[in-house]
Design goal:
The complex is a heterodimer of chains A (111) and B (111). Chain A has 111 residues and is mainly beta. In chain A, 0% of the residues lie in helices and 57% in strands. The termini of chain B are far apart. Classes of the chains: A mainly beta (111), B mainly beta (111).
């Protein structure tokens, strides 16, 4: 069975304290791994798509990486405005339009 | 502003009511989705439409009835819902095999 597992469930950081969020997946024939950010009461906002192991993408303080079994979202010198829930999702070869989401990591950055 | 607009943002209904959620996308995308988001659970795919045709129904109870009159509009008709149907209902759109763009969601409470 396809699974997407995110860890930790919740993470508290001090402003400037770098860390990483993990998304591990057990799907065959990965056709894309997606990272989203979701603020309370709002819809998910697209951040990155990664397609193959070794790929990396960056946006401001965020950097996403991908291996054959997991993806990391590295947050460098976070600010309070980075506080949000970060969602990971995967699409596989045979799933057509379907994305399978993880439960998310709730990140809080204290000033 | 993501280009995907959902109305209403909040809805309270009794179990015997009939109501509808509306989604409109201004991005020229060809696929539209309904997702359900409940507390502490991953996003759950409900329906997918490609070029107005339903391509996925994720075993959703018939008290949820989708309608897609054209590629820009998507509705979710609700009738005789249960309290456990209370959740955030998210609409998303996509072009080709790209990422999903989500609306802000409609927060539904069933009394």
């Amino acid at each position: 069975e396809d699974q997407v597992t995110q860890s930790p469930e919740a993470l508290r950081l001090q402003e400037g304290e770098s860390s990483s969020l993990n998304c591990s997946y057990t799907v065959s024939g990965l056709r894309g791994l997606f990272w989203y950010r979701q603020d309370p009461g709002k819809g998910p906002e697209f951040l990155f798509t990664l397609y193959s192991a070794g790929e990396e993408k960056e946006k401001e303080r965020l950097k996403a990486t991908l291996t054959k079994k997991e993806s990391f979202l590295h947050i460098t010198a976070p600010k309070p405005e980075d506080s949000a829930t970060y969602l990971c999702a995967v699409r596989k070869e045979t799933s057509g339009s379907r994305l399978t989401f993880g439960e998310g990591t709730q990140l809080t950055v204290n000033p | 502003e993501t280009g995907v607009t959902q109305t209403p943002r909040h809805l309270v209904m009794g179990m015997t009511n009939k109501k509808s959620l509306k989604c409109e996308q201004h991005l020229g995308h060809n696929a539209m989705y309904w997702y359900k988001q409940s507390a502490k659970k991953p996003l759950e795919l409900m329906f997918v439409y490609n070029f107005k045709e339903q391509t996925e129904n994720n075993s959703v109870p018939s008290r949820f009835s989708p309608e897609c009159p054209n590629s820009s509009h998507l509705f979710l008709h609700l009738h005789t819902l249960q309290p456990e149907d209370s959740a955030l209902y998210l609409c998303a759109s996509r072009y080709g095999t790209g990422e999903l763009f989500f609306g802000e969601g409609s927060r539904l409470t069933v009394l």
